[in-house]
Model the fold of this input.
Amino acid sequence: MSQNTSKYTQLIKAEAKRLGFLSCGISKAEFLEAEAPRLESWLNKNMNGEMGYMENHFDKRLDPTILVPGSKSVISLLLNYFPSETQTSDTYKISKYAYGTDYHFIIKDKLKQLMEFISEEIGEVHGRAFVDSAPVLDKAWAAKSGLGWIGKHSNLLTKQLGSFYFIAELIVDLDLEYDAPVTDHCGSCTACIDACPTNAIVADKVVDGSKCISYFTIELKNEIPTSVKGKFEDWMFGCDICQDVCPWNRFSKPHNQPLFNPHPEMLSMSKKDWEEITEEVFQKIFRKSAVKRTKYAGLKRNINFLKE
Done:
């Protein structure tokens, strides 16, 4: 291990912190041997539902050296999105990650700055930045890089801050010092499994995507099946139930990223306000939000499904 490797690793981690990332972990870019059978089994059981894109690029998903030729290190980063205020209690709910500006824009910008810093301080380093928009198994890399462990609900968990954060990566052709995974601290707790109203958590660390409320309210383009009627607990975009009940999320701390703050009107909207939402109000409140993924018609479909 050269002196430079250690120096570069420290430089990158310090800059990630300066840019506002919660933490930064690094692992060797190599084939994810343990993940391959899991992903294959998940796909074979059609747990991806209509998310056909999950079946594409199987090899790239498991091997960053195919995705980014010449890559040597995967730099994993976490960014907190836990809000200081949440919606009023009796209303149709939006997953906390979608409260403010779409995280893709915010994180892409930070990753670009980190990449520029690496080029300036270290020299010509090639790589690519990823924010869950490419075939990268974010959670597997974050766990491998020691940033947390995979909980029973299949989200990454840390003892210090729970699970309300985004995961992103830089995959680069630079040798760095690699971190070791941390131990699992879920123990015999089954809070997330017990609380899921659609029984989407089918085994330890296995979520049947096609049964998840987030899938029904965001990914599913057709009508929501009547078999799940009355089971959404007022979630109209995404769902945080498995995270909300997790004991480790008692330690969540509010983010300090102003762009993640919701449009002021959003927090106080009642069920009636949502039921009467016009396209104009939708565009105003969710102008730069991830909620735009469902479009106005999709959100109306979800609200009508909850209301009926």
